[in-house]
TrEMBL record:
Protein name: Non-heme iron oxygenase ferredoxin subunit
GO molecular function, one term: 2 iron, 2 sulfur cluster binding
Family annotation (Pfam families): Rieske (PF00355)
InterPro entries given in the database record: Rieske_2Fe-2S (IPR017941), Rieske_2Fe-2S_sf (IPR036922)
Length: 126
């Protein structure tokens, strides 16, 4: 069974709050394959899904340096590398961590899995 991996940012409303996330279906569980990026959208915003074991993570899919799709980069050891200038981002948090030209993190999203579908909530900065 897929667990609901999520990364909470700052100022997240408490459970049961009227400001709770609006969840959007972005993929089926079967579409998100371990070792590969899955490009999708949430309300017109480009996101990428990544699977590690039973966990699925979602981060922004556009490198903040040159607006290149991160999902077209190389995935290894929990990092996605931008195909243009080799900036690396953690798939669990969206944090930029290594070299390249990007100095800004990408958005990180809450993820939940229900009934074989992957849902993504609001973006949060790590």
């Amino acid at each position: 069974m897929i667990s609901t991996a999520a990364r909470w940012g700052f100022n997240v409303p408490p459970m049961g709050s009227a400001e709770m996330n609006e969840w959007v279906r972005v993929a089926s569980v079967d579409e998100v394959v371990e070792g590969e990026a899955f490009a999708s959208e949430r309300k017109g915003e480009a996101i990428a899904l990544y699977r590690e074991g039973d966990d699925i993570y979602a981060i922004g899919d556009v490198c903040p340096h040159e607006t290149v799709r991160l999902s077209e980069g190389w995935l290894e050891n929990g990092l996605i590398e931008c195909p243009l200038h080799q900036s690396c981002f953690e798939i669990r948090t969206g944090k930029v961590i290594e070299g390249g030209a990007a100095y800004e993190d990408v958005a990180c999203y809450e993820v939940k899995v229900e009934g074989g579908s992957v849902y993504v909530g609001e973006g949060r900065r790590p």
